[in-house]
């Protein structure tokens, strides 16, 4: 349970970090908070030749709120977002989900972008990003580009990021008036991996439900408005379409039932929060 | 741009429990092993080595963190507090430690160092933390002896003492 050997680069600026990624490609991994990467290194599921530590890159330590979007830089720790006094007002879904990300002892170091890069199918932050139609800002020496969150996650721990790219930020829309948000998670203990996590966004145009922990990536679907007769059938169809599997923690049948039940509950809760 | 080579040891300087400390580490060395084997501070325990059990929890720049999910080279210049930094004097326990003893909050003691570091940080940042918050903090730790009930009792009692007592939170 010790990492294999690697070189360690403490990047002092974005250009330097991107230069290493450009030169080393898939042999390099970005090290931010390390709360997803270190377990992978310790278990030798990842054996990079070089780690690029980006926590000293000041331009990636920024959080920008331009009134419509919250943009969170690559080196911003989860605890820094969690402790923002206005977070529950600016983006209630993110505020509701953050306490479920790992434990306080990992949020103190883990970054928001790092969790997105790791793309665990049961992770809360990718789920929130997908539910809100957030964007992933990628940058390499060659180019900068943005990918919609819904297209970024391509499978179990797989993303649209190229080997020489870094997630330099994620951005998500701030709360809109007349829209309600809700989050719920089922896990064995608080802080364990989600057996299922649901995020709902309910506005004038209906309900949107995102589900994590069931498919190989967070999946979102537009559903009929809460209270409408078509909702239970639509939820049931969604539950089946997620192609749940049995594992150590829960059966596929249990997960489908949770999508139907918790899904309905979060949609109703989001509806109540629409004030 | 400093590039630390995989097969060499590199100087890491930091503050440990208020004192300057330094040692040499390869890039792949975890903070747990660095503290225990290089620095010789064996109070921090090593359990699962993938961030689940919480035995290795220390404080890095005031925040509780898993030493097993931290590389030694990452703490260059950081302020680290370990269980060795809790007791105010060699023959005296901190309020929190004393409370653990009074309430039988440990049996084998393997998880204890990490739990103490998490609670120490919680009570410093949130002296009025609700019981639910204490439980949430403990959720980041595995204890297979006590069933957690005595740990909760000890934590609540220590919190009360720290809020009302003569000893300030600095001695948490």
Describe this structure in words.
The complex is a heterodimer of chains A (about 280) and B (about 170). With about 280 residues, chain A is of the alpha+beta class. Chain A is about 30% helix and about 25% strand. Chain A is built from eleven helices and 14 strands. In chain A, the strands form four sheets. Chain A has a five-stranded antiparallel sheet. In chain A, strands 11-12-13-14 form a four-stranded antiparallel sheet, with helices on both faces. Chain A has a three-stranded parallel sheet with strand order 1-3-2, covered by helices on one side. In chain A, a hairpin with a 2-residue loop joins strand 12 and strand 13. Chain B is of the alpha+beta class and about 170 residues long. Chain B has helices at about 30-40, 95-100, 110-125, 130-140, 150-165, and strands spanning about 5, 10-15, 20-25, 55-60, 65, 80. Chain B has a five-stranded mixed sheet, with helices on both faces. Chain B starts with a strand and ends in an 8-residue tail after the last helix. The model of chain B has no long low-confidence stretch (mean pLDDT about 95).
- Mean pLDDT of chain B, to the nearest integer, reads 95
Spatial strand arrangement across the major sheet of chain B: 3-2-6-4-5
Largest interface: A-B, 38 and 37 residues
- Based on secondary structure, the structural category of chain B is alpha+beta
pLDDT < 50 runs, ≥5 residues of chain B: none
Task: Give the helix proportion of chain A (percent range).
Answer: 25-40%
Strands across the major sheet of chain A, in which order?
4-5-10-6-7
Order of helices and strands of chain A: EHEHEEEHHHHHHEEHEEEEEEEHH
Strand content of chain B: 15-25%
């Amino acid at each position: 349970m010790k990492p294999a050997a690697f070189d360690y680069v403490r990047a002092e600026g974005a250009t330097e970090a991107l230069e290493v990624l450009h030169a080393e490609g898939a042999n390099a991994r970005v090290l931010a908070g390390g709360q997803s990467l270190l377990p992978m290194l310790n278990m030798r599921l990842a054996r990079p030749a070089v780690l690029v530590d980006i926590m000293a890159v000041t331009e990636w330590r920024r959080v920008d709120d331009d009134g419509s979007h919250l943009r969170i830089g690559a080196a911003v720790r989860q605890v820094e977002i969690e402790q923002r006094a206005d977070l529950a007002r600016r983006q209630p879904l993110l505020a509701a989900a953050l306490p479920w990300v790992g434990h306080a002892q990992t949020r103190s170091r883990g970054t928001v972008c790092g969790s997105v890069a790791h793309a665990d199918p049961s992770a809360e932050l990718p789920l929130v990003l997908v539910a809100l139609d957030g964007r992933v800002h990628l940058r390499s020496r060659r180019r900068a580009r943005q990918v919609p969150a819904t297209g970024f996650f391509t499978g179990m721990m797989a993303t649209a990021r190229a080997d020489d790219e870094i997630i330099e930020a994620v951005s998500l829309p701030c709360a809109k008036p007349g829209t309600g948000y809700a989050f719920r998670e089922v896990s064995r203990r608080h802080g364990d991996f989600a057996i299922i996590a649901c995020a709902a966004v309910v506005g004038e145009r209906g309900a949107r439900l995102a589900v994590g922990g069931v498919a190989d990536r967070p999946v979102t679907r537009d559903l009929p408005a809460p209270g409408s007769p078509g909702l239970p059938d639509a939820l049931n169809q969604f539950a089946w379409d997620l192609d749940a599997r049995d594992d150590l923690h829960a059966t596929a049948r249990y997960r489908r039932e949770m999508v139907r039940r918790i899904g309905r509950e979060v949609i109703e809760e989001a509806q109540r929060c629409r004030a | 741009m400093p590039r630390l080579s995989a097969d060499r040891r590199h100087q890491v300087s930091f503050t440990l429990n208020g004192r300057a400390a330094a040692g040499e580490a390869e890039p792949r060395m975890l903070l747990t092993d660095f503290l225990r084997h290089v620095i010789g501070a064996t109070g921090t325990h090593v359990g699962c080595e993938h961030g689940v059990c919480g035995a290795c929890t220390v404080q890095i720049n005031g925040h509780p963190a898993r030493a097993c999910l931290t590389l030694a080279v990452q703490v260059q210049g950081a302020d680290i507090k370990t269980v060795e930094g809790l007791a105010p004097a060699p023959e005296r326990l901190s309020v929190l430690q004393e409370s653990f003893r009074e309430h039988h909050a440990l049996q084998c003691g393997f998880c204890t160092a990490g739990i103490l570091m998490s609670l120490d940080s919680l009570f410093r940042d949130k002296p009025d933390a609700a019981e639910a918050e204490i439980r949430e903090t403990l959720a980041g730790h595995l204890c297979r002896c006590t069933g957690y009930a005595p740990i909760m009792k000890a934590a609540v009692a220590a919190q009360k003492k720290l809020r009302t007592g003569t000893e300030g939170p600095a001695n948490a």
